[in-house]
Design a protein that fits this description.
about 100 residues; copper ion binding; Ion_tolerance_CutA; Alpha-Beta Plaits; Divalent-cation tolerance protein CutA; N-reg_PII/ATP_PRibTrfase_C; about 35% strand; single chain
Length: about 100
């Protein structure tokens, strides 16, 4: 089994988040993408305190697909420097992890 991976990113617009989620699943880059409701993010960008509404995308994929997932996010994202964080899935229901692999192979 390839190594399952959880990738997190945000998007400022629900329509853009949903388009990106659908693209990742349609192209076999992700088995599933959850788009969470609006949240308010606070951060410092270019020396200024900033805040704004964002939607969190929780992307289930595998390590071998990470470069393509990252490229798809960068291609579709309006931010100069989008949040893209990946972490291995060390444990999970074996059947679900196998499903991730089958959908992203």
């Amino acid at each position: 089994m390839n190594d399952p991976l959880l990738v997190l990113t945000t998007h400022p617009e629900i329509e853009g988040a949903e388009r990106l989620a659908a693209k990742l699943v349609r192209e076999g880059l992700a088995a599933c993408v959850n788009v969470l409701p609006a949240m308010h993010s606070f951060y410092v960008w270019e020396g200024r305190e900033t805040s704004g509404t964002e939607h969190l995308l929780v992307i289930k994929t595998q390590d071998a697909r990470y470069p393509q997932v990252e490229a798809a996010i960068l291609d579709a994202h309006p931010y100069e420097l989008p949040e893209i964080i990946a972490t291995p899935i060390s444990r999970g229901l074996p059947g679900y992890l196998n499903w991730i692999e089958s959908r992203t192979s």
